[in-house]
């Protein structure tokens, strides 16, 4: 038979876990943003010979720019959430023994 491992975490430990998750999401979005910037630069450098290609290039650039705007907005929201979580972790009351 297998054994079960129980892990108990303090509320502060749970808080730090979620902070790390938020930080990981921020890093992933920053990587996605960097990749979108590279795509945009490559698309910007592509030559166009006619109106159809120019329209297609503009559509592609608009789509990439909207992805970048969305990623920036999500990063700002997650950074705000992280700051709020960190400040609440600092302000959390410390357990005081009744025997003091």
Can you describe what's shown?
This protein has 100 residues and is mostly helical. It has a domain at 47-88. It is 76% helix and 0% strand. It has 2 helices and no strands. Helix 1 runs antiparallel to helix 2. The longest helix is centred in the last third of the chain and has 41 residues, at 51-91. It is rod-shaped. The model is unreliable at 1-12 (pLDDT under 50).
The percentage helix is over 70%
The class by helix and strand makeup works out as: mainly alpha
The number of helices is 2
Rg, Å, rounded = 23 Å
Regions with pLDDT < 50 over 5+ consecutive residues? 1-12
Q: Care to count the β-strands?
A: 0
Order of helices and strands: HH
Q: What is the first-to-last residue Cα distance? A: 46 Å
Shape: rod-shaped
What's the average pLDDT?
82
Q: Indicate the proportion of strand residues.
A: under 5%
Oligomeric form of this entry?
single chain
- Please outline the major beta sheet: none
